[in-house]
Amino acid sequence: MSDQSSLAMAAKAKAMYGKHLKSDDYTELLRKKTVQEIAGYLKSETAFKSVLQGINEFAIHRGHLEMLIRQTFYLDFLELIRYGQSNKDHFYEYGVLMIEMKQILMTIRLLSETDKTNQIAQLPIFANRMISFDVEKLIKVNTFDELLNVLKNTPYYNLLKPLKPRSVLDIDYANFEVVLKSYYYKRVYEIIEQEFTGKDKQDIRDLFDTQIELENITKIYRLKKYYNSSPVEIKKVLNPTYKRINKKLLDELIETKDAHGFLLAINQNGYNIPTDIKEFQY
Fold it and tell me: What ranges do the domains of the chain cover?
């Protein structure tokens, strides 16, 4: 990437970052009781007002709200990579990989559904030119074999084929998520290794390490609070990456703490996560 492109991307990214939700916004959102209240706050008090303009916040459902918020990620990402797309610059691929992974997982989740309305609404058609498969074909997928056929000329085919279930009733969604996310982060770290050196490389690795750790914390909390999962079941779905909390401590917390106790312990060991709001949810 040229110095001029780097400066332009940095300026654009800084402007986008300035529009992110602040700590006070998240605290306020945690106090909301309904999807409609959340939508109203995002529409009137945050930078999401542009994408939420025109919606009826009193009638919107969760899936539609999530789709609109997710679309802002796609649009911001596509706006940024205009400054970095070239034959020599590949870091932007991490966003494409994320889009691909999320679309595949959504298709797997909806294999048993006949109503594809929600899936159609969430298709990133505007990013199709960068994606390694035709996302529009996903809405016609009704079986796992049909999904494999769409993914035939991509790395995902060999990843998913060994996991083929006997029927849609036998689908282990968590297993697919673990496999796809492992591939995603493997590719991200390969790209970082190829594209960066020195402090830049370490800083970006640290960023993704922290993201993985926060995803693990979220999974542990949800599985303990809502599914009463055993330590063995929890550990099966975690990515073995540790940043602020080492493996020994994390294993101990998984074994000995309930959901609330787990959050308290995490709060004392590296992350300032609120634990005093009733029915706190990620």
Answer: 1-89, 90-195, 200-282
